[in-house]
Amino acid sequence: MSQDNSRNLIEVQHLTKSFVADTDFFGRPTSFVQAVDDVSFTIRRGEAFGLVGESGCGKTTIGKMICGLLKPTSGQILFEGRDITALGQRDRRAMCRDIQLVFQDPYASLNPRMTIGKIIAEPILTNKILPKDQVDERVDELLELVGLAPYMKNRYPHEFSGGQRQRVGIARALALNPKLIVCDEPVSALDVSIQAQVLNLLDDLKEQLGLTYLFIAHGLNVVKHISDRVGVMYLGRMMEIAPKESLYTEPLCPYTQALLSAIPSPDPKLQRRRIILEGDVPSPIDPPAGCRFASRCFAKIGACDVSAPEQREVLPDHICACRRYDNVAPELARDLSLEIQRDAARPSYGRGSDLINDDPVVTPEA
Ligand SMILES: Nc1ncnc2c1ncn2[C@@H]1O[C@H](COP(=O)(O)OP(=O)(O)OP(=O)(O)O)[C@@H](O)[C@H]1O
């Protein structure tokens, strides 16, 4: 990864986290869940880094380790060049002011007994950011920043809609002027129409306040709008990292291609070639020895079962951990990003045709 380090706000290096899955009669661990395994990536100042992958692949665990809520098993997290995993409690608390979290569930993340004014003021008072007589004014300012009226501060969370509650959660995260906000699936609990509003708000705040985001989501469609670069995870491993433009048009890893093919087309007259992955995700307690995705990969070769390739920069700024990245038909990648006209002849994939899962093209109703 050749990069100017001063551009990076966060550098995650060989991060690993395992949880105890089971213990024996004496309470000694007998098996472990490998939630995150040797993951490395950077987040540059002022960028939104999207982290995607299906449920259980380790996204939230990474977010929690960056926020200091979980201690890594091994690896480093450099924040402005300092390893936050090695800090003492006081230094970590100070550092945590710079890294705030917006939670997935706006219904569960706000204290129902506090007014939203108090919820937003709490971190300011606890961290003694402002004199008490200025806190009220700051709360009004934060409410306006997230599109809520200051008079609403005397209301309780149950008096707000899901979208409004998520705005309160964002205001609370902004209260300490953080440098990085970890957004853990911030819109997945909201209606689709409200999702777009909250995503637009986050995008506007990023421009206005020069924020940096780690934006966690299940699917590539949610992060497409907001992210500058995207990392794709599978079963604890980082499979691919690329700028948004190249990830969506030139996905190199077969798993990324499968995720992209699952994005529904907004135009019913257009159809997209779907890659249906067969089989289940292996258990994180006993993950495959080679590439984590090998058991479901349509492009795998024998070596994929034996050893996992390292993450490496295979195109400028495009990192991939797949030894088959140059063997999967480029036409397939193009079809996934450009979409195929419904009546167009199906393209021949040549070399890739024996590799891809040639499932039928789904034809939407006219
Ligand atoms: N405290 C814990 N104890 C034991 N196992 C855990 C713990 N937290 C997470 N795990 C396991 O670690 C793996 C990764 O979990 P994580 O929540 O990071 O995944 P995720 O990608 O964020 O999933 P989701 O999108 O569903 O939130 C899962 O197998 C999960 O069961």
Structural class: alpha/beta
Question: Looking at the chains present, what oligomeric state does this protein adopt?
Answer: single chain
Q: What is the spatial order of strands in the main beta sheet?
A: 6-7-8-3-9-10-13-12
Radius of gyration: 22 Å
Helix tally equals 11
Give the full name of the CATH homologous superfamily of the largest domain: P-loop containing nucleotide triphosphate hydrolases
What is the C-level CATH assignment of the largest domain? Alpha Beta
Largest sheet at a glance?
8 strands, mixed
N-end to C-end Cα span: 47 Å
Question: Uncertain spans, ≥5 residues at pLDDT below 50?
Answer: 337-366
Helix content: 25-40%
Ligand species: adenosine-5'-triphosphate
CATH structural fold name of the largest domain: Rossmann fold
Total strands: 14
Mean pLDDT: 84
Query: Globular, elongated, flat, extended or rod-shaped: what is the shape?
Result: globular
Protein model, in words:
The protein is an alpha/beta fold and 366 residues long. It folds into two domains: 5-22 and 32-227, Rossmann fold (3-Layer(aba) Sandwich); 244-354, no CATH class. Helix content is 30%, strand content 23%. The protein is built from eleven helices and 14 strands. It has helices at 59-67, 89-98, 116-126, 132-145, 162-174, 192-209, 220-226, 244-249, 254-261, 302-306, 330-338, and strands at 8-23, 29-44, 48-52, 74-79, 82-83, 99-102, 180-184, 212-217, 229-234, 237-243, 270-271, 312-315, 318-320, 340-341. The strands form three sheets. It has an eight-stranded mixed beta sheet with strand order 6-7-8-3-9-10-13-12, with helices on both faces. A four-stranded antiparallel beta sheet has the order 2-1-4-5. Strand 1 and strand 2 (29-44) form a beta hairpin. The protein is globular and about 65 Å long. Residues 337-366 have low confidence and may be disordered. Bound molecules: adenosine-5'-triphosphate. Adenosine-5'-triphosphate (ATP) binds at residues 19, 33, 35, 53, 55-61, 218, 284. Adenosine-5'-triphosphate (ATP) is lined by residues 19, 33, 35, 53, 55-61, 218, 284. Residues 10-260 form the ABC transporter domain. Keywords: ATP-binding, Nucleotide-binding, Transport. Belongs to the ABC transporter superfamily. One of its GO terms (molecular function) is ATP hydrolysis activity.
